[in-house]
Amino acid sequence: MSAVKKSGTGGASAFMQAEQAARYVLGRTRLRPRVAIVLGSGLGAFADQLSEASAIEYRKIPHFPISTAIGHAGRLVIGKVNGVTVAAMQGRVHFYEGYSLEQVIFPMRVLARLGIRATVLTNAAGGISREYTQGCLVLLRDHINLQGSNPLIGPNDDRFGVRFPDLTQVYWKPYREFAREEAQRLGMQLFEGVYAALSGPSYETPAEIRYLRAIGADLVGMSTVPEVIAAAHLGVRVLGISCVTNMAAGILDQPITTEEVIETGERVKGQFAALLSAIMPRIDADLAASAPQDDLKKLSRAKSAAAKPPRGGRH
Q1: For residue 34, what are the domain limits?
Q2: What are residue 36's DSSP bridge partners?
Q3: Which of 12, 82, 179, 306 is the one with CA 20 to 30 A from 216?
Q4: 185 located within any domain
Q5: Helix or strand (DSSP H, E) at 207
Q6: Running DSSP on this structure, what letter comes out for residue 249?
Q7: What are the E-state strand segments in 6-66?
Q8: What is the 3-state secondary structure (H, E, C) of 139-163?
Q9: pLDDT for 141-180, tens place per residue?
Q10: Residue 311 domain-assigned?
Q11: Number of domains present in the structure of the chain
């Protein structure tokens, strides 16, 4: 395994590093995406279907962290799906790989500097709810952060967002409705649930799964939540989709393997791609309709921040 590439820390500010990375990416394509898709373990094949595509390896993007996890190709693909220009990340980096949480969210900050205003975050997850079966797709309506930290800890750069971002509706309800309607049209079953994020890399114990069920978790994984928090900070709308690639520890009387996760992702890639393709035009149309209103809100926030001293949060 290669050494962890440092990003988002030291030298230039994280904001300037994100700017440099974004300028590099924009210089490699004429397309200008405003929707991003982050593809989790075993789900990266979707990016191979994009038309007019330009693929850039993470290692070539300034300051960008490099994926070391199995099933993560480590490429940013800019292209079109169903007529919509998107930026698709074939894989992500995780806290368990040795990256800081600030480094984990650096790609989301770069995407925002590209002009991204909505993102679809996907992952491979363990199913806790007994309603789920291996291979089913689940919309995220909320999350529980059990990774032991928050990616926004430290000095706040107001150019990214406010000091205390609200997470009340971070999983954008209209986009969940889009997904449900398109899944019904495609004849697909789509569930909804709460995702718990742990640090990993070990899979959970049966006792931990019983605890997670008791506190309201339907799914468990090792990603996504830091990116969701960063997206909220950046004002980026989020749609979260989990693929239940295995049932969590203790649900079935069998061990959990990485091979099982990858194989399940491969098996469902067709219906997963069909759902993503169907959703994209609706998200793009929503962004087009809301653009003037969003610009006014940003201008109002900027004026307010300039006129008032920073307010405290909970003490």
Answers
A1: 14-155+165-303
A2: 87, 119
A3: 179
A4: yes
A5: helix 206-214
A6: B
A7: 35-39, 51-57
A8: EEEEEEEECCCCCCCCCCCCCCCCC
A9: 999 999 999 999 999 999 999 999 999 999 999 999 999 9
A10: no
A11: 1
